[in-house]
């Protein structure tokens, strides 16, 4: 019996091959694939001093905010919705898939809750003479003046509005796996197509949560860089003097389609999601197992799922947050998976330029990975002036031209979330 | 070489081998079966959060499922309930001490987010009234008053994270958000992954803490809460449109491919069938029509009972009942809200778990579970006796 072979429509395991036919992206570097690709390959930074709210007294006063899109009120769920709409519009238009999207929606959204301006408005309406209490806020809510905020601050609304806008089928999935959420959205879409449930999936990661409390929460966990000056120098993955991540905003959308469906309608195939891998880590709420086993398992699971050996990977699009912990563990994990070859396998972190876009990161970096494949050009890890000598990596310090057929894109998150994708130009 | 067709692999049976429940009715399968059988009104606290009644969770001996005090301290209520119920489900499946099973067990959780520090919020809001430097004041107070670890008790995916840490369930986790429909989606996708052969086992469920004043602010906006006292779910019409009484609850199910359960000698408590759900644009009659169609899609035949997750909003409940009866004339309908209240994301997993328990003890051969979200989403889950 012959070895199983992939075809133009199915992978070696006989599953429907998952093609990408539309890409959309918004980051602090700009709107759309063209603007972002130009900026990313030019090594431009989107990190700047925060102007959205006062930063007095904060240890971190910089972020990769998307300042050219805004909403009223300026709150995380609305910003996240706006970014997602813009990215999805671009992806769906490129795919040419029609007005009613012929598949499901999987959207990674940041956890939602009421924000301070809204709490203040309720407190004011309550008019409690002494201390403000939640009982007062409840009484204010009962005036019916604030009813519109219910939908604004429940978890399913962003997905609901996206589903309405793009006409996706069935129940839209809103999900979180913390900082690997964007990759999980893609994984869910891939799995649904492989099960034959749908021929197409709209997969989105979005995050617009640069606001005082979100920033302060990360700051209190000592997760953020405090090297505010100059802002564009703060995010320096894999550098010896890295001191934390920089919050970023943005969204990315991918139209996934069974290769069979994409070919039959004559769509241009931009690349393939060849494999997805994940592994949980029960070691600690914010830290990885010291031996890196879950990170290693997630990368290997993605390679296995894609049916490729480590040698088949040409480039690693790193999670590369610029925290001391992540970059060390990621380097350790990559060394275990790729062996000595890791010293000559180009690795790069888009977060050096756009910051850590949190919920959106996995999707944004998947889009960049596919652009890297298409253009044969690896975006740099900027600010790589002082390499960490303990990490034996081939960090791409300036944009590098190379034939890139397959990329491993890593995403790791709080709560033991590890999700990796293998993206490629052709079936494995 | 012939390719496996999706249709072939979809034929794998999915069985429930573990159930973990906590709510106002107590903890465990027995407590919930007896609460269901009793038809007694659920335990209600109408005082603590007046004018909003809630169904408070029964007192739990947390040490039994969360041995380390440090773990208990790092969690907020919603996480403790969920981790506790997940532990009960692992016990029920007989895998609590099976490190190999747990390290390969994928998890899908339906959840919102965690509690806030109410005293800190109140003090900051009070202080904000007296300052002209609101931004600087807010920054200073948040930096000084927020507990650093509170963030990890709030993040939606950190219920799953805590289940991984406390119980060693480390296959990989995904957290679905989006109120009631996320619970249905979690069940649907967990089932589909096993049925299609993508995985052998799953743990699926969710957790909700109703005893927190911030969720009452959110749901009072829109007028979704019943006041001032509990009334049976299907008797909340009258002067207004009813409303929900939030209930603290957590429900987890261990699902396995039937052959996987058989191979390890596990008892199949019930069979979970493919879940049917949708999200139709809300207009008069649309929910009714959607439910009728979904009952057909789910293949519901002659259920001994329909467990409705009706929220308590009268207009939606009327459509739900009409939709059920159009497909299943004369079917008996019981509201799970009359057992545990409305636990939001947990409503569907709770209904599925109770349905499996009813099948396991022989009280039912087929149970249908329905879910109509207060803003969106309709779902039907069919559970049958093995």
Automatic annotation (TrEMBL), chain A:
Pathway: Lipid metabolism; fatty acid biosynthesis. Residues 15-425 form the Ketosynthase family 3 (KS3) domain. Gene3D superfamilies: 3.40.47.10. Keywords: Acyltransferase, Transferase. Its EC number is 2.3.1.179. One of its GO terms (cellular component) is cytosol. This is 3-oxoacyl-[acyl-carrier-protein] synthase II. It comes from Methylorubrum thiocyanatum.
UniProtKB/TrEMBL annotation, chain B:
The keyword Acyltransferase applies. Keywords: Acyltransferase, Transferase. It is an enzyme of class 2 (transferase). One of its GO terms (molecular function) is 3-oxoacyl-[acyl-carrier-protein] synthase activity. Gene3D superfamilies: 3.40.47.10. The keyword Acyltransferase applies. This is 3-oxoacyl-[acyl-carrier-protein] synthase II. Residues 13-261 form the Beta-ketoacyl synthase-like N-terminal domain. PANTHER family: 3-OXOACYL-[ACYL-CARRIER-PROTEIN] SYNTHASE, MITOCHONDRIAL (PTHR11712:SF336), POLYKETIDE SYNTHASE-RELATED (PTHR11712). Its EC number is 2.3.1.179. Coiled coil: none annotated. GO terms for biological process: fatty acid biosynthetic process.
